[in-house]
Design a protein that fits this description.
The longest helix has 18 residues. The protein folds into 2 domains: about 170 residues, HAD superfamily/HAD-like (Rossmann fold, 3-Layer(aba) Sandwich); about 70 residues, Alpha-Beta Plaits (2-Layer Sandwich), CATH 3.30.70. Helix 1 packs parallel to helix 8, helix 4 runs antiparallel to helix 5 and helix 6 crosses helix 7. It is α/β, with parallel strands linked by helices. The strands form 2 sheets. The chain has a 10-stranded mixed sheet, sandwiched between helices. It has a 4-stranded antiparallel sheet with strand order 8-9-11-10, covered by helices on one side. About 35% of the residues lie in helices and about 20% in strands.
Length: about 270
C-alpha cells in the first residue's frame, strides 16, 4: 500500500507512524462516498464493501475508540449506506449530527433556513425535469444536484438554473464531485462539525488521537481546520491528492480499507 505525505512516499508497511494513532481516545472520522464507498453513478447505488463494513463494525466496539461517519448525505442516509451500529454520523456537510442511539441534532443556524430549502426543491424539481441525467437529492437541510450522467454540453445550463434558484433564495452553491451543493449561508461545514464532535468525544485531549479521511472538496474544510487547530490529527485525502490540505494521501477506498485493517490489527495486538 502506498501512502503519500505531501509529495513524499512513506513506508507502505507502516503507512501512518504508530505513535500518531496510539492515543486514547482514538477518534476515526470517515467520509462515506468516495472514501469508504467507491463513487457510484447515482447516490442510491453507492455501497460500502462488506470487508470495509466489517472492519468499521469491529473498530466501533473497541474500548477507547469512537467512529464517526462524515457525509454530505443526510445523516440517516449515510448511516444506512454504511450499515454499522455504534457510530456517530455527521450529515449534510455538518448541518446535523446523529448519535449512536439515532438521535439527530440540527445546527440552529441551519434550521432557520428550512423554508428556503423547501422553496429550492419546489423550484428545481420542474426546472431539472428536462435535463436528462440530472439527479436532485433533497436532504432537507441541504440540496445536491448531481450531474455525473448529464451531457457536458448541458452542464452550463444546469449550473445557471441551480445558481439562479439559489441566489433567489439567498442560499449558497458549492462545487462537489460532479455535483452542485446548495446550502444555507452560515458558517457550518464538515470542519466546524468535526471540531465540535471531536471536542465532545475527547479528541482534543493531550493524549488523544484523531484520524479523518475524505475525498471531496467539502472535506478540505475539515483538513484545514484540523491541521490548524489539532496538528497531531492524521488527515488523509482519498484519491488524487493534488491541491489538498490533507497531510497524507491514499489513491482509492481500497487502500483506506487496508489502513483500517492495519489499525484494527494494532489495537488487537495491544490488548
Amino acid at each position: 500500500m502506498s501512502v503519500a505525505a505531501g509529495s513524499q512516499e512513506v513506508d507502505p508497511d507502516n503507512p501512518i507512524p504508530a505513535a500518531r494513532l496510539a492515543g486514547r481516545p482514538l477518534l476515526l472520522m470517515l467520509d462515506v462516498d468516495g472514501t469508504l464507498a467507491p463513487i457510484a453513478q447515482r447516490p442510491s447505488l453507492a455501497r460500502v464493501p462488506d470487508g470495509t463494513r466489517r472492519v468499521i463494525a469491529s473498530l466501533a466496539t473497541q474500548p477507547g475508540v469512537s467512529v464517526a461517519l462524515v457525509s454530505g448525505r443526510a445523516a440517516r442516509d449515510a448511516q444506512d449506506v454504511v450499515g454499522v451500529a455504534n457510530v456517530w454520523t455527521i450529515g449534510n456537510h455538518g448541518a446535523e449530527v446523529m448519535d449512536p442511539s439515532g438521535h439527530t441534532t440540527v445546527d440552529p443556524a441551519v434550521a432557520r433556513y428550512a423554508d428556503s430549502m423547501k422553496r429550492v426543491v419546489g423550484a428545481l424539481e420542474p426546472a431539472l425535469a428536462s435535463l436528462d441525467g440530472a439527479v436532485l437529492e433533497n436532504k432537507q437541510w441541504t440540496v445536491t444536484v448531481h450531474y455525473r450522467l448529464v451531457a457536458e454540453a448541458i452542464v452550463p445550463r444546469l449550473r445557471a438554473i441551480v445558481g439562479d434558484v439559489a441566489v433567489r433564495n439567498n442560499l449558497l452553491v458549492r462545487e462537489g464531485k460532479k455535483a452542485l451543493e446548495i446550502r444555507p449561508p452560515v458558517d457550518v461545514d464538515k470542519g466546524t462539525a468535526i471540531r465540535q464532535l471531536a471536542e465532545q468525544l475527547g479528541g482534543f485531549n493531550a493524549d488523544a488521537s484523531l484520524l479523518f479521511a475524505g475525498d471531496d472538496a467539502t472535506d478540505e474544510d475539515a483538513f484545514r481546520r484540523l491541521r490548524a487547530e489539532l496538528p497531531h490529527a492524521v488527515t488523509i485525502h482519498v484519491g488524487d491528492h493534488a491541491n489538498t490540505a490533507a497531510e497524507f494521501s491514499l489513491p482509492a477506498p481500497e487502500q483506506l480499507h487496508a489502513l483500517l485493517e492495519h489499525i484494527a490489527h494494532d489495537i488487537n495486538s495491544d490488548r
